[in-house]
Every structure is written in structure tokens, then in C-alpha cells.
Amino acid sequence: MNSLTRQIAIYGKGGIGKSTISSNITAALSCLGKKPAQIGCDPKADSVNTLMGGDFIETISEITRKYGSSEESLNRAICRGFNDILCVESGGPIPGQGCAGRGVLVALDLIRKYRFFEKNNIDIAVYDVLGDIVCGGFAQPIRHSYAEEVYIVTSGEYMSLYAANNIASSIKLFAGQGLNVRLAGIIGNLRNVKDEEEIIGEFARKLQIPVIQPVPRSDYVQAAELQGKTVVEAYPGSRQAEVYFELAHKIIDNRRQFIPQPLYRQEIIDLLNIYPEKVS
Amino acid sequence: MQKQGFKWVKVSEMFEKTPEADFNCDYPGYSGLWCRLIMAVTSYAMTKNSVAVIHGPSNCAWAIRNFCQTDYSLYYGNPFLHMPVTGIDQNDVISGGADKLVSTLKQVDKDYNPEHICVFDTCSTALIGDDIETAISTAQKECKARIDYIPSAGFTAPSLGKSIEETALKYADIMEYQAETTENSVNILGQYKEQQDSSPMPGKKRCKNRRGKYSDDASELTRLVEGIGLNIYRILISGTYDYIKTAPQAKVNVISCPTWGFPLAKRMEEIFGTPYVNQSIPIGIEPTKKWVMELAKFTGREIEAEKFIHQELQELTPMFERAKTYVSGKVALIECGRNSQTAFARPMALARALEELGMHVRLFGLHPLELRAKAMDFEYFMKEGFDPLILDGNYAYQQPVNIAHIIEDLRLKQGEYVYFTQDVFPAAKGGVFDPANIPRVETGVHLRRVINAPGRGVGFRGARALYENIIEAVMFSERGSKSTLYGRVHGDFYESFS
Predict the structure, then answer these.
(1) Contact B90 A94 (CB under 8 A)
(2) Which CATH superfamily is domain B173-304 in?
(3) CATH class in words for A6-274
(4) pLDDT in tens, B346-384
(5) Which of A13, A34, A172, A229 is catalytic?
(6) A255: distance to nearest CA of chain B, Å?
């Protein structure tokens, strides 16, 4: 593996905004002079959509089904998006069939085997991974010396924190098994929950990891996605774009990594009870 | 043997102290002997005019085809079976292989034009949860042959005995409800008719125009049934799809092999209400009498049965008494297995028959987990109150126990024992000290399934064959010169003494 390529993985509950944040981070990194790549690790294959002008690209799974597993197939799957960012989707089966985890695993093996990062001089590779670590396949990006630096995206809602905690448990387990994977921090994707930043902050404190950046809710996100673009591309002068740039800077500068201390379920509930939601 | 941790215990004791086969068991590596797929497909080979479609990678099909071409399987007596494969690859594992299964089934129906197709899944397709039943119902709309499914992923079965049990049950699902039953008709369950053919060979001068010296099990059980005025309806598991599916038309089921027979009989009783006679594997005089009498009681033919048994015993008793003079008071060393295919029911039935001859029986060569896996056979013998001694210990996988070690362990002297061997595959015999002065009776299950090989099995004629073999083995061990192989196999050697 190319030691010059920094590989980070973005995990979090399904629908929490991982792809939006990943794409904006990648777009910001490219504007900051880096050469990033984004690898969507989700059978839905919608990770790089906003980097590709709203287009859904052909996935590694689809291509290898047609042409077999070769370097040529991998090259067919690599697309150039906004600011020349290299975009790849692992793809996978249609819902309810086959093994999506296996699809991710095979795609990443192909990327490694044909030295995708080295041959394209990639500085930072961002893996955007589906929801929870539901099986071994989705843990693949943080196994076998792929990404060793994980960021968890969460809101202040219970189920989002619950999923984040599960991911932290997996990372602790893998670290205990001798893998180099570590948690680098939490990215708060705010949903306008009451006391949300405090909740996320307290949760991170208990996990013994930092909050890297809270990302506020913004109408620019929806507006940019409707144009098939990231906020960084569509509204580069906006406050929301500034947040993504700030996040990209922090990731570039961040060298701290942690083994988290996951919570019991009751501890998450107790934490949320400190900040009771008003029900009218 | 004691230094290695082996000890002689009652069968019930070995069963009770052995844990169920799982990953926490005390016997790592013994949780499975054969892949369930092999067991399921080779069992299905008894179904004629059929095709087994293996839904998995081509290597799974290759493994079974290879198995079917080895001595191992040839001795097992499997007929040829078409077994095309869907050829699942990496892409299919990711995207699901159900579509490939549908197209394969349609193609097989068109190319082979079989009466019946059975789908067998493999580890890869089971792990990804391919919806095989929906694929079958989709394909069925365009196929003439009926399509069934036997779950057979290797990882889903811990042991050989359980695999057999689960596969046997599936045959009841293939059967169809019959509105009327046929009077005096009997099914035999747990028997391979197609493989056991001792019918005369017209025009052949060898072996006195017979395929072997002794009648096979299927023929002998048929003779017992017909001897009390009943008719055989079906012998399962074998035959075409039509033959199998109409089995519930019989009045009653009787059982030959308990491993296969009991699960199928119980399921047929549940689904179709077909009763079964609770006796099995009738080797020896008393078990055969019980088997016949229970069937007679069920069908109201006690008088015919008593007459039949009386006639049979008149013929058999002199040979029984003669065998007894050779072995009464001696130790019967009964081998349950000398390779990965162990047997329990038949060695136990043999032990029961040898006790009638006044022998002290000792079983060995059965791994405790394989005994545990054959719970149904175990229950049958315990219900019968038969609980002999068996050598308990952690047997080395696929390594036969050296008979010399057993003799030494029991401090037996020449002339105090008879060795009853298991299978006779050439490879399985390698490395075993087998001197001529050890009286050795071949009892291999699989030997009897091969056409032209002598059968020594069930019923009164099976008992006669057993007694003849025992006398022959003891006499052979005591003589100075060697017999020919032909003489040993076809009986000329024995006949020179009679």
C-alpha cells in the first residue's frame, strides 16, 4: 500500500449524511491543492453523485459482471468528477439479493491489487461506507490495512448515537485484535435537535474522542444536491462551504487517533435524559 | 489402548457422556465427516430418470463427481447421476445467483427431459440467502419435470447421521397423498433395491448363474414379506419419481436401515397417516422373528407367520447349531468403521445376532460423536434393551484401529475371538496388520451393495450366510495353507469343508 496515500473512512447511521459530508470534504480537499479520491462502499452507489454533476456512475460490481475482474475493469469504473476528483463506487446487488458486503470486499481488493492510489498519485482516499458495520464486508475498509483513520458522523438523536456507539465498539474490537485502525473523531451533522452540540460533545467525551467539527443544518445542502453538486462547488462563498473547508483543514492537520471506550445502551439514554426534549 | 485414554463402556454410557457435535465439543475436527452436499446428492442418486442441479460453484459439483468416481463411492454402489451445476462465481455471490438457477433449471428440463429435478444448494448460495424456493416456482411454470429442493449446504449439518436423517425426511415431501391404499401392500424403507440385485444371470455359467452366493437384503426382506402372504409395494429410497411419489398407497411401512427408515417412516405417518412397524435391521434369528411377527400382528397374519417362521427355522437351525460350536464363549470383536464412513446400526444388529451364538460382543472403531449423531438408531436399540460394550475414546480421524491392539488390550489368546471387519475398500485396509490366523468375517455394509459381491445380511437367509461365514473364517484361520481369493469370495473354500 502506498504510504503517501492517507486513507480515511467515514461511518455513521444510514441516512445521517455521510455521502454529503464525504463529497464536500473531498471537494474541499481538492480545492486546497490535494489530490483526493472518493470510494463509495454502499450497494446504493450514490456516494459520488454530487461530485459527478448528479450522474450515477457504473459500479465496480456492474463492470466486473460484464467484463470480469481485471485492471481494465477497474479503469472503466474510475470516473473523474468535480476538480478532477477520482470517483469509484463499489456497488453491489439489488436490495434483497446476494451479498453486498462481499461486493465491497471484492471492489477494495481490486483497488489494492491494481494499485489505484499509487498509479493516480492520490493524497487522500475517502471511503464512504454504508450505515452500521452490519457484517464483515462493511468492516473491510478498516481491515487489512485499508483505512486506519475513521470519522463517525452522528447527530444528537438517540438512534444516530446508538449506531455511532456500535461503530466505536467495532473499532475497539479490531484494535484489540492488533489492527491499526483508530477513531480520529466525531463529525456532528446537526439536525436542529435541542442542545444537540452539547449532546454530541458529551457523547464524544464519554467515548474519549474529540468532536472534529459540528456541521450545521443548511438549506444550501439541499439546493446544491438538486443541482447535482456539492455545496463547495455550487456555493463556494457560503457559510456552509466555509464549514466544509474548515473540516477539510482539520482533517489534513489531524494526527491524533484514539481507541474509543464505547458506552452501554443505558449510558446513552442517561446522557440524553440530561438534555430532555420538550414535548408540547 | 488404556494409556491412550480408551476404555470399554456400555454404548448408553458413551452416548450419554458425549456432547452434541458443535464448536465447543471436546473433539475438535470431528464435528463433520462428510459434506452434507455429498450425502444428499449421492442419496438422491437412487432416484431414477432424474437430474440433480447443484446450485453453487463448479468446484462443489466437481467434489461430488470426484467422490462418485472413486473406489469409495463405487463400493458404496451409487449409480450414475447427472449433476449439472449453476456455476456460481464471485459476481453471483455479490449480486445473487437465483436468476442463474432459474435459467439452469429451464435448460436442464429442455436438455435432459427428466421426470424429476432436485436442487441442492451449497455453502456459498446458502450464505447469501438465495431464494431457491421462489426460483424453483418461477422455473416450474415453464418446466415439465417436477422440481424439488433438498437443503444441503455443508455448514448446516454437523454430522453424517443428522445429514442422513434430514435428507430422508425430504423424500416424504416428494410423495403425494393417495386417496386409497392397496390391501396387503408393504413398503420397505431404508433399502436400495436398485443396487442389490441377486437375481439370476441368464447365460452366465459363473457363480451358478447367480450374481452372488447369498441373496441381497432387498430380496430377502421381500421374501419375508411375501412369505406371510403380503406384497411389496415400494422399496425406498430408489426408483423413479412416480415410484417414490405413490409410496403412501401402501398399507404399512417396514424398516430395514433405521438411520434412513425411521425418520422417513415417522414423517410419512405424520403427513399421510401410513403406519410403520417399529422393528428394524433384522439380523439374527430372534430379531428376524420379531420383525416378521410384528408385521404379521399388524396385518392379522399371525398364523401364516408362525408357519413360515417354523419352516425357516427347521432349515436354519442345524447351521446355527454348527456355528455355535465354533464360536460360543468366544469374544466377537466388531468393527464399526475403518474410515470416514462409520456404521452403528448394522454392527449393533450384528452384535445382537452374535450374542445368540453365545459370543461376548465388543464394538470398536466408532467415534463418540458419530454415535451421538445416530441418536435415532441408538434409541431403537436402547428400547430393545440391547446395550453392549464399546471402546470409548478420541479416535484419530480416518485411522482404523489396529485389531492387534484390541486383542492385546483384552489379553485374548489365539482361538478366543473372531474379528468382524467393516468396509473393505482397498485404501481403508492399508496399514492394518491382518494375519491369516485371525478369524476374520467381512461384514462391510458397502460390499453387499455391489452387484456380484456376496451379501451377508438380514433375514433368515442373511443369518445363514453369517453362520457360514463365521465357520469359514474360523476354519480358515486354523488351516495351514491359503485359500484362493475366488474361493473365499464365492464360497468354494467353505463348500470344500461342508
Answers:
(1) no
(2) Nitrogenase molybdenum iron protein domain (3.40.50.1980)
(3) alpha beta
(4) 899 999 999 999 999 999 988 888 888 788 889 999 999
(5) A13
(6) 36
